[in-house]
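Limitations

Structures in this collection are predictions, not experimental determinations, and the ligand pose is part of the prediction. Treat each record accordingly. The example that follows, with MF3 as the small molecule, is included so readers can see exactly what is and is not provided: the inputs are given verbatim, and the output is the predicted complex.
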Amino acid sequence: MLPFKIGRNDPCWCGSGKKYKLCHMGMDEKLRELKRMGEIVPKRKMIKTPEQIDGIRKAGVLNTAILDMVGEHIHAGMSTEEINTLVHEYTIAHGGIPAPLNYEGFPKSVCTSINDVICHGIPSPDEILKEGDIINVDVTTILDGYYADASRMFCIGEVSPEAKKLVEDTKKAVDMALPYLKPWGHLGDIGAVISNFAYSEGYSVVEEIGGHGVGIQFHEDPYVCHIGEFDTGMVLVPGMVFTIEPMINAGGEDFYQDEENGWTIYTMDGSLSAQWEYTVAITEDGYEILTH
Ligand code: MF3
Ligand code: CO
Ligand code: CO
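Predicted complex:
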């Protein structure tokens, strides 16, 4: 079949129902020009319609409420299994589905990653939160078929000043990247801001596990690396939806995977690791946080 070329007055490929010339035509022309100049440009499937973004926004509202609820209940002496139960039941009660459950064989409804666990910790009745722990709770919710993904750190009781600073700095790193989220910016700006800041504080940044497109599926393109350089990587355009979720280690960047469960990622040197995750959308004039 010949490649299909959309006429100016045909319906836009995005499904908005608007004429192409009144919808994505201008953007497509600009992207074609940027591509000619050697830029990496997003594929059409990375660009969501307003309707899809609305669906992800609604999933995000529930996802944020779940994390708020976890924050109200988390305490020393509880097991990570109890966090799993809270997340699972709250999600179901509000019409959602916990995306982690059975995702590529993941056995639980949430990831709980304590201290030197970088990510993908599996809740367990044998794992009890204690004073001084830092824990990442990573919640992903499906609502009406749309996915939203976010995680937060929680400090259990009094934690060491170093742990507290790592937790706060990791959130600060994500917030520092937000002003770079705008049309015609670059994906590499995110990694540049985050890694420059993390390195200046003496931390390391995990390179091989990162953010991702999200919304129609759990993990979509593009890959969002938290180490980068300004003005490099994919061009950002309105309608892109992805996560920013840096994993920042107090020590070295090396890690290993739990051989028994095949999921949990630990720092090689046993140092603390923190992570915060937001799902964001690129808008006409900047960004929107869809869940945090
Ligand atoms: N929520 C994680 C992320 O931010 C992915 C977890 S995959 C799971 O991408 F299977 F462990 F849930
Ligand atoms: Co994610
Ligand atoms: Co997540």
